Structures are given as structure tokens and as C-alpha cells.
Predict the 3D structure of the following.
Amino acid sequence: MEYVKGILLSILMISFLSINAQERVGSDIVFKDTIYQFGPVEEGSDAACVFSFINKSKTPVAITNVKTFCGCIDLRWTKEPVKPGQSGKISVKFHAGNTGTFSKTIKVFTTNSGEQSIDLTIRGSVVMKSGKNNSISMQSSFKSDYDNKNSFSLLPIRIFSLYIYLILF
């Protein structure tokens, strides 16, 4: 019983320490939102959003760097140090390329954050341009549907093979 109490106490301590570390990073500047949901974005178009923040520290804070790991994002941010109680912003422009869902992370570094970053996220889905010829995608979906039906008809053979394998080994 003492062993279980020790493990639970250790887990609680680790959780407490990690929460405190996260609060320290985000305590200098506080973003109104850290996630922006674009929704559907038409393929080949641009979508933009702005992340606003307030300096909650007692000293001026400057954004030293903003990084993203995708060439589909353009970033602009407040370059001057933001005084205590004042606000700044990070403008994000997303260039919609390939169709499908996306989730992109933007890392924000400040004069007070050191090596740790504040993560911002943009999400949405890129949809085909209206009026675009959909015949290729319909052919590919028909083909995958056809393949799924054929693989389903092979199911009894696969189950029998698995049964033989289990008996032999």
C-alpha cells in the first residue's frame, strides 16, 4: 500500500512541476486565443488570421522570433518591445495548397521565454476549387471502392489462413 502511495505522490509532483513550468512560459505575454480554426479554405487561395496578446509582466517584452515548419505560412509580428499592459499581434497568412485537413504549429519566442516557446495553432481543411473537374477524384474513389469490395470477398480465405497459421505455430 505504501508503494502505491509513493507512486501516486510522485505522479502528482511531476504533474505539478510541469504545470508550473508551462505557466512561467506563458506568464509574460498572454494570447487571447492560441488556436484559430479556419474551417474550409478553397484550394489555391489565402486565408489570414491575427493572434493578439497582452504583456502581463512588469517589464517590456519583445518577440525575438516566430517559427513555423511549413513554407505555406507567412508571418508578421510586432517587432518593438511591448510595454506592460500593452498589446501586440502576430499576423498569419496561410496559402492553401493540397486538399485535405491541416493543423500547423507556430512557435513564438520572447525575450523572457529563453529556449521555451509559446505554441499557436491554425487548423482547417483545404477544399477543391468550385468548378474544378472532379472526374479524376471520382475515378480514384470508384477504384478504391472496387478494391475494398474485392478485398472483402477474400476475407474467408484470410481468416482460414490465419487459423492454419495459429494451429501450426
Summary: The helical segments are 2-26, 135-153, 155-168. The first helix runs from residue 2 to 26.
